[in-house]
Amino acid sequence: MSEFSQSRPAAPIVRRSHGLFGIDLASPRHANKLGYLLLAPAALLILAILVYPMLLAIDLSFHDVKFATLSFGADDYTLKNYQRLFSSPEFWNAIRTTCMLLLVVTSISLCVGMGTALLVNQQFRGRSFARMLIALPWAVPEVVAVVTWVWILDASFGVLNWLLLKAGLIGGQVSWFSSPGSAFSAVTMVMVWKGYPFISIMILAGLQSIPEEFYQAAKVDGANVFQRFIWITVPCLAPVLGVTLVLTVLWVFRDFSIIYVLTGGGPVGATETLAIMTYEEAFSFFRMGYASSIGVVTLLICAVISAFLVKKTSHAIY
Amino acid sequence: MKRTLLQSILLYATVIVVCGFLLFPIYWMIITSLAPASALRSFPPQFWPANPQWSTYTNLIFNTDMPRWLFNSALVAIVSTAISLLVSVLAAYSLSRYTMKGGEAVGLFILMSKMLPATMLIIPLFGIFRSLGLMGSLWSLIIAHATAIVPFATWMLKGYFDSIPQELEQAAQVDGCTPWGALFRVILPVSAPGLAATALYGFVLSWADYLYARTFLASATHNWTANIGIATFKGEYQTDWNVIMAASLLAALPIMLAYLFLQRYLVGGLTAGSGK
Fold this sequence. Notes:
The structure holds 2 protein chains of 2 kinds. By secondary structure, chain A is mainly alpha-helical. Chain A has helices at residues 2-6, 31-61, 80-86, 89-120, 127-134, 142-152, 159-166, 180-208, 212-220, 225-254, 257-262, 274-283, 288-317. The longest helix of chain A has 32 residues, at 89-120. Chain B is 75% helix and 0% strand. The radius of gyration of chain B is 23 Å and the shape is globular. The interface between A and B is large, with 109 and 100 residues.
């Protein structure tokens, strides 16, 4: 830096600018004005495309409307949507399905993600190539992943049925999408396949930041592989795991494309999550007010879950 | 740590088996797209194409709307990412460097928007776009995708800017830069990798969308994106899996290539952005 400032000795040390609105933004007195100015475009855009629609949706949820209106408080406010929602068996079924999916997909993805991350964290030749390949499904768009899996799971000529038949695990061809249980497992398979790479990437980054000395010290103390994993790896990964878990849970909770293209929520509502129910009510039955109320409930549940998880994992660090 | 030969072999075998297992769907997509249609309706399935049918691809490119849909996907992704990044860079810099009233609130709202279900947001957006006459137009998608990209890009870039020492701008200002100059001539060039990673994520986010595209573009076939095209193929050509898989591969390829070549930046950005 010193050579740089010496090369232009004639220039004033701080050049005053009077460009914007005649305000000298470089002076400490006005420094924050520049901050606001920089924030303004994003704030305005967020107000227009996120805050306003969100308020509109909340407003809609208190109105008995068939179609989305843009005026606030057009009719009298009513709790009809929420009353109907909480007394509807379909809603409780969707809650149950969403929670089951959440539990199954998150735990399996976490296991696969952790396993793959630990595997490619070993030292071997070609490790960086293996790291690249192991998270490749991350880069496959959800619709493409679903369509590919539909073909793999095809009842008559799908490769999975062929393999299972060959291995003698099934007696006849399984029609994956016609029974509730198998449709649910199909959704789980695809979601895990799309979900584990992110977890793997995050855990691998976390693993790389654990100092090697920790392991060496534990080895000196006679800890075996399993003990080292439980007492060093897991605690050191806790913050990363927390963030990853929150993001994965939010993804499973709100994802639409995978289930909608794969099963459409069927058969008989076995894979209908809150997201699918919201969309169906809004765009198949055009009950926009009712659909908004499901959305509001989903949002609240998401907020509670992430607050809980963030709290839990921040406890785990200390 | 030295391994015995047996341990090395075991490790490599595990890596190969696990990779093979997890990447099988991608492999199967490629193999199916090259197989002749008749071979797909026979057992046992062919695990290696005896005579690859490249005509499936030329057919798809010259005789269907697929190229147009891919172009639409790219156009929407580029424009929405560009607009979002423009405002996000400034906002992220501001949130990272200035302490302002309301700055905290913006930060909090950005976090909350990560929890906003898209299936709920789409309801008011549907009403708004209808009254603005944007239904069926690509602008509806560009705006809808910005609702996801702006908060996420702002958050990710804020994390990136936080990691750049403030002394850098102070030095630039001592040397005669205006605050604008310090941002555009010093900070932005230094953050090029972070900007690239954020832009790529924005692109991926937009490219992968199906929900908004399906809802806003339903009847405007010429404005469809690749994802709606593929989902529709799945319904129409029930048994021509080679065509569907070829179209799928074309739609997945841009993102997969970007991932393979730019993995280092992407992973850095992903972990930095969400670690905060």
